[in-house]
Amino acid sequence: MNQHQLVITQYKPEYAEQTVDMWRNSKERAIGQKEIHSFENHIYFLNHILPEQHQIELALIDDKVVGMIAYNDKEISQLYIHNDYQGLGIGRTLLDRAKEQSSGSLTLFTFDINKNAQRFYDKNGFKIVARGHENEGNLPDIQYKWIQNNSF
């Protein structure tokens, strides 16, 4: 990232197409499955549904969307990093923001097939609390929980 500054900012609709493009590519690579929703529906979800209960923040480098997180004080709904920018600490930066603004614990779901995400959450203090298939892709998933000061 050298001289290119990472900027964390509130989501704005002018970043919708870049954000959804990054999100879909990252998710497809992570789970090996194409997105089941249309691009337009995905943008609608990002602009109208997700913000009802979640704060959405973007990670930008040179005004390019390289990551996004959607969270509230109890859960992380979405966390995606651009395929070309993974492993640089962007995910941890976004995760730390959610932890700082949490009620002291956070839950999230990740797909069982997504081993990179599991390593990431394990490394960042999350513990597995449940396994199941409660998602529209009908893929096995894992529920993680983080508790401040790790007092499980």
UniProtKB/TrEMBL annotation:
InterPro entries according to UniProt: Acyl_CoA_acyltransferase, GNAT_dom, N-acetyltrans/Recomb-assoc
Superkingdom in the source lineage: Bacteria
Segments forming domain N-acetyltransferase: 6-151
Keywords: Transferase
Keyword Acyltransferase attached: no
Pfam families on file: Acetyltransf_10
SUPFAM superfamilies, sorted: Acyl-CoA N-acyltransferases (Nat) (SSF55729)
GO MF, one example: acyltransferase activity, transferring groups other than amino-acyl groups
Any coiled-coil regions, as ranges: none
PANTHER family: ACETYLTRANSFERASE, ACETYLTRANSFERASE (GNAT) FAMILY PROTEIN
Protein name: GNAT family acetyltransferase
Organism of origin: Rummeliibacillus stabekisii
Source species taxonomy: Bacteria, Bacillati, Bacillota, Bacilli, Bacillales
